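Protein in question passed on here:
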Amino acid sequence: MNFDKELNARGMSCPLPIVKTKKSLADMTTGQVLKVISTDTGSVKDMAAFAEQTGNALLSTVEENGEFVFYMQKK
Protein backbone atom coordinates (compact mmCIF):
# COMPACT_ATOMS: atom_id res chain seq x y z
CA MET A 1 0.00 0.00 0.00
CA ASN A 2 1.24 3.50 -0.78
CA PHE A 3 1.85 5.82 2.16
CA ASP A 4 3.08 9.37 2.67
CA LYS A 5 4.77 9.05 6.06
CA GLU A 6 6.02 6.22 8.28
CA LEU A 7 6.01 6.09 12.08
CA ASN A 8 8.24 3.59 13.88
CA ALA A 9 6.52 2.82 17.19
CA ARG A 10 8.42 -0.42 17.84
CA GLY A 11 9.14 -1.03 21.51
CA MET A 12 6.68 1.62 22.69
CA SER A 13 3.96 0.69 25.16
CA CYS A 14 0.45 2.08 25.41
CA PRO A 15 -0.35 4.95 25.09
CA LEU A 16 2.79 6.06 23.20
CA PRO A 17 1.90 4.51 19.79
CA ILE A 18 -1.40 6.43 19.80
CA VAL A 19 0.19 9.65 21.05
CA LYS A 20 2.85 9.49 18.33
CA THR A 21 0.23 8.61 15.70
CA LYS A 22 -1.83 11.64 16.69
CA LYS A 23 1.23 13.91 16.43
CA SER A 24 2.23 12.47 13.06
CA LEU A 25 -1.27 12.92 11.62
CA ALA A 26 -1.32 16.55 12.80
CA ASP A 27 1.53 17.34 10.38
CA MET A 28 -0.23 15.70 7.44
CA THR A 29 -2.87 16.93 5.02
CA THR A 30 -6.31 15.43 4.37
CA GLY A 31 -6.15 12.21 2.37
CA GLN A 32 -2.52 11.40 3.16
CA VAL A 33 -1.72 7.94 4.53
CA LEU A 34 0.37 7.21 7.62
CA LYS A 35 2.05 3.82 8.06
CA VAL A 36 2.55 2.87 11.72
CA ILE A 37 4.68 -0.08 12.84
CA SER A 38 4.15 -1.22 16.43
CA THR A 39 5.15 -4.19 18.60
CA ASP A 40 2.52 -3.47 21.28
CA THR A 41 -0.29 -6.05 21.04
CA GLY A 42 -2.70 -3.56 22.61
CA SER A 43 -2.18 -1.20 19.70
CA VAL A 44 -4.56 -3.27 17.54
CA LYS A 45 -7.56 -2.31 19.68
CA ASP A 46 -6.15 1.16 20.38
CA MET A 47 -5.71 2.06 16.69
CA ALA A 48 -9.24 0.92 15.85
CA ALA A 49 -10.67 2.97 18.72
CA PHE A 50 -8.52 5.98 17.82
CA ALA A 51 -9.70 5.87 14.21
CA GLU A 52 -13.33 5.65 15.27
CA GLN A 53 -13.01 8.51 17.76
CA THR A 54 -11.12 10.85 15.44
CA GLY A 55 -12.77 10.04 12.11
CA ASN A 56 -9.47 9.05 10.48
CA ALA A 57 -9.79 5.94 8.31
CA LEU A 58 -7.95 2.80 9.42
CA LEU A 59 -7.32 1.31 5.98
CA SER A 60 -5.43 -1.82 6.99
CA THR A 61 -4.14 -3.75 9.99
CA VAL A 62 -1.66 -6.56 9.38
CA GLU A 63 0.52 -8.64 11.70
CA GLU A 64 3.95 -9.46 10.27
CA ASN A 65 6.59 -11.33 12.28
CA GLY A 66 5.31 -10.12 15.66
CA GLU A 67 4.88 -6.55 14.45
CA PHE A 68 1.62 -4.78 13.71
CA VAL A 69 1.43 -2.59 10.64
CA PHE A 70 -1.35 -0.03 10.36
CA TYR A 71 -2.26 2.25 7.49
CA MET A 72 -4.33 5.25 8.55
CA GLN A 73 -5.68 7.92 6.25
CA LYS A 74 -6.10 11.43 7.63
CA LYS A 75 -9.63 12.79 7.45
In short: The mean pLDDT is 97. The longest strand covers residues 57-64. The chain has one domain: 5-73.
